[in-house]
Records
---
Amino acid sequence: MVDLLHAALIQPFAEFEFMRRALVGAVALAIAAAPVGVFLMLRRMSLTGDAMSHAILPGAAIGYLAAGLSLPAMTIGGLVAGIAVAVGAGAVARASVLGEDVALAAFYLVSLALGVTIVSMKGSNVDLLHVLFGTVLALDDQALFLIAGIATATLFGFAVIFRPLVAESVDPVFLASVARAGAPVHLVFMGLVVMNLVGAFHALGTLMAVGLMMLPAASARLWVDDLSAMIGVAAGGGALAAIVGLLASYHFGLPAGPAIILTAGLVYVLSLAFGRRGLLVGRLMRPHLEA
Amino acid sequence: MDMQDPIAIEFADLTLGYDRHPAVHHLTGGFARGVTTVVLGPNGAGKSTLLKGIGGLLAPLGGRIRLHGFAARDIAHLPQLAEIDRSFPISIFDFVALGLWRRIGAFGGIGNEERRKVGAALAAVGLEGFERRAIGTLSGGQMQRAMFARLVVQDATVILLDEPFNAVDRRTTEDLIDLVRRWHAEGRTVVMVLHDHDIALRLARDALLIAREKVGFGPVGEVIAEENLARARRMIESFDDHAHICHRPAA
């Protein structure tokens, strides 16, 4: 029995270095993505995160065009494109009659098409698949350092902006009346979103980078009401999805990135059903109290 | 307004607005220190805009606002309730503790003294025992009490209230009126936008009636005379959506 568990849970990581690298990278991503995802969700910006993850593609693609599958080139390209779209969509929303959601949708559709076109111009379909779906099983030292660095910077970043970000989310007018922190805090937050998307892009690709942000955050919201606890639960849930997803991909020969996101999706569906705030248990097993 | 009253907030030829359209037009006057003043006027008269201007949330399109004897940071502003995201998971205690911002900023800790301050403010508005509840569980009236508790914690010299008793039941209104009276007794300057003339008469000494421009200013009882109110309504109805550039010389 112990042997069986060992073979199922430990041995894949003990035996193969690429599995250990994938584990470290995916868990670091999950932990950093938790606060990002929770705030995106609470600020009703889930689709913004999704749009931004596509928006980094042309930048990464131009980096690819210039230097092939080079991590620094694609990272810098992705960061520049992501920040440009975040700032650009905000500016379009302020200066025109279009809302920010419309502006982002326009940006991201163009970005996705442009990115795929640029990659296809030079590379093979395999390269295109790498860009779209990531290479979590082929993380080299450079990529691991990048992901770990981003995770560290993200946690420190949130420590700095936590209180103003909460205030800006609950009551932006109040924050504006006591401090001029609203706009800078929003910008720093968007910067953290872009950074994490670029980090996740290397492991999970542009199409699924946002999965480790939103799915664990949404799951956590169904279990706890406290903000700090929500971030903790999201980080734990994301890390669990990373581990289970990698094991599933190893044992059943599934593509690793999608397996991780599917596991996170399964956690979400289970939370939706059985979570304290879910549809089944939350409603049926918790009768209302006396008035 | 008596001439000997020291002015706390003075506006000179003040124009405030959005997208070049003035919502407050060439307004000159002032609010007295330590006095409760109401701002009256029909919908769209620029009352909330005036408060935003004083609170520093809106830069003037023309003219200026001068603060005498206090700084912009001594102003506490209660906007209308609609701007708050009440689904955000934050406890009543933490929400009211936001009022400490000027003291502790983004990084300062909440010590025993701050804790006591927040507790006293919650008691003052009748929300003891609600500390750990999320703001989303409060009724409209309870939420307004929490907003007032935050104002108490802010401990400001000048307090701006924008229709603070809207959609609030009678008992809550009475409790909050007591709080405004207490602020007045403590020597604070209160400026409030109101629709209810009875409450205006009970709470305020001075009134400013505006319809984008000043219609009347003085003791509440005189300002709310029917001919003034009728004039204010007529001024709002004649508003031109395709206005030309205003060439009125600065006063």
---
Amino acid sequence: MHMADALLSPAVGTTFWAGSLGIIAYCSKRLKNDINEKMVPLMGVLAAFIFAGQMINFTIPGTGSSGHIGGGMILAILLGPSAAFIAIASVLAIQSLFFADGGILALGCNIWNMGVYPCFVAYPLIYRTITRRDKTPGRIMIASMLSVIVALGLGSFSVVLQTLLSGRSELPFAAFAALMLPIHLAIAVGEGFITGGFVNYVRSVRPEIFDIVEGTGKLRESFSMKKVLISISLLVIITGGILSWFASTHPDGLEWSIEKIYGTAELPGHENGIVPKLKDIQEKTTILPDYDFAGKENRETAGTEKSWPAVNAGASVSGLLGSVMVIGLISIFGFVIRIFKRIRN
Amino acid sequence: MLTFDKEYFNIGYLDTLSYKDTFMHRIDPRIKLLTSLAFILLVISFPKYEISKMIPFLVFPVVILSIGDIPLIFILKKLLIVSPFALFVGIFNPILDTAPMYSIYGVGISGGWVSYFSIIMKFILTISTALLLIATTSFPGICIALEKLFVPKILVVQLLFLYRYLFVLAEETMRIVRARNMRTFGRKGQGMRVFIQIAGTLFVRTVERSERIYHAMCSRGFDGRIRMMKNFKPGFIDIIFAVVTITVFVILRKYDIAKILGDLILQ
Amino acid sequence: MSHHIIDFKDVHFAYPDRTEALSGISFRITHGESVGIVGANGAGKSTLISHMNGYLMPAKGRIIIGDAQLDKTTRSDIRKKVGVVFQNPDDQLFMPTVFDDVSFGPLNLGLSEERVIERVNEALNTVGCYDLKDKPPHRLSLGQKRAVSIATVIAMQPDILVMDEPAANLDPKSRRQLINLLKEFKHSKIIASHDLDLILDVCERCIVIGAGKVRADGPAGEVLLNEKLMKENNLELPLSLQRR
């Protein structure tokens, strides 16, 4: 479920980073205003708990293989949306650094996919609605199950969208969604069962712990439904808009390429800055007369029509040969540094 | 059965590496974070069918690895076992995009393979850079860098607590998991129900621990704010490092070094 | 300096689940004394310690520390006077590096950065851990963690030092180093422990508690030597005395 750097375009990566950072800023403002002091260590230690929990494997019934939990919904239930979002963001950040799950640029997408949906969609709309009246084990189980299914469903759907918008993969929209959604539905059933079972177990063994935890998160009471609804409708409008635009420009959902996005959507800032200037420099310094941007762009946009102009064989051979040489040179360079260091010691 | 221990020792090892004392480790964490980010953004910005221009970018991870005294084999192993999502999604490219793109001595290569190799290349470059960032920078260093780069304090504090208790809780969990594994035979006893109980117990202990930590914080005057003294400013060397790396990145992003070399040789 | 006093007057406390942990504890500890508190598991030692800096508040009775009675308004001042070292150093050391941890308290006192650095260095030198300054706590041995835990508290320069099981799980050498360290402190000290030899070594006075009440209070040499009293409270004679 972790989105990966290698599948992302800078536009998509930075957009979702901006979105996630915005929500982090919003949550930390909320928490700053009415945080209970106890929450500071509690959030940190519970995030570490989720992390440790993810490392425990268990057998998935009926398959014989083993799996582990994600735990986002558990955090949302225990800590309330804002604190849980911050905690989830921190877990994902550590995962991206220590386990290289996804990558640094993809972290923005991952925080969005695995944080926004459980905290700001599933928890307020589903879990709280179902368990507001009475918290019987059955209700908690159903609420957890539905929440996790919705959160994971939306999350995996976002992975599909982000991949397609980035245009690095050839997978058509329908096929990709058909691949991702059922897998995550199955995962969600397991995760939902564990989430519900976990909440019920803790409630039965140590009911007073929920008082500690819920007492700490007085945010729950002040949670404004209106704001959630507004943000969700915004979300729906944005995703809906992107989707319909996507569907209309590419009826078959095929061959979605980054060049297309760059052509029609706005360019991300850094690209804006570097590329045109570089083009300029290149035009002035004609070291590479036969390698020009115009030609390349033609080639790439041509890709959407699935007809490739024959490429001259000489160019590709020299590219291959050069690449091998560069790898060799870099390895030698690395060795030289090591040897130099060893001598100096 | 040993996956838990393995994963745990993996983080532990990375963490140990990050406390080495080399030129790379001494560079200001903010500079390392920003150059790594610039690197990743530039690599990611290569279009779908680009390979040769990306190859010279290998120089950055190789240099960090060599100067930072990080074992190559460790990074390679991590690259192999890391979440294969990108490679899995990418494998559909060669299947779906079969139009020939290059031909090398008569062997045609389809656009799908080219774009798949491009994804693999990006995967190697971005993941190794992320790993090397953490292997050459202590985690508290990264957190302070983040705070200086205007990440909300509450998230930074949260990251610090998570890092601090990650190891404590992982060890506690490891003891429970070992006890479970020692008393389970075949696959019995490793199911979800036992998992829920283990997780529940661990949770109860964790909440109790957070109470004790809170108690310890209070007795040292905690009033809701975490105060830390951070006294580092980027020195001359840090700035030189940043300027040099960014310049090299921009040059590599622009010029196809591999192809220039190849052309030179073929002539 | 006669105000380094801890005075418990008929203190009662029960947890929310109604287990009564303290049922009428009274004692008075004056300036410069070092007092050991012993008792079986569940006798109420940890609950007692939680009262000494107001983490828990007595349900009945009064606690006077220095010249102030403990209540919600005096609590934060009392915490500056009474430094508590907790049983588990992993709970005591919550910051990412040793320096950050030792400086946490002094920074909260609102000291200037130079003063904070001075205090941190002083405290770390006292416990012999200056070289560990930049290490993260999870890279320390248990003995080092304990020493640093003590440094975090003495950096706040409290009048009274309270310790819960300072030597638990230490290897013999680390334990001996800790005992020597404790002997050097001129603070008023209160040490709760199962390690009766440590109490005998470090403390002049000893209070035995059992079932939330004070069972005995007197010179450590006498109290700990009273075999009958020890047996009644699920304790035994210090090992060093058993051999005689």
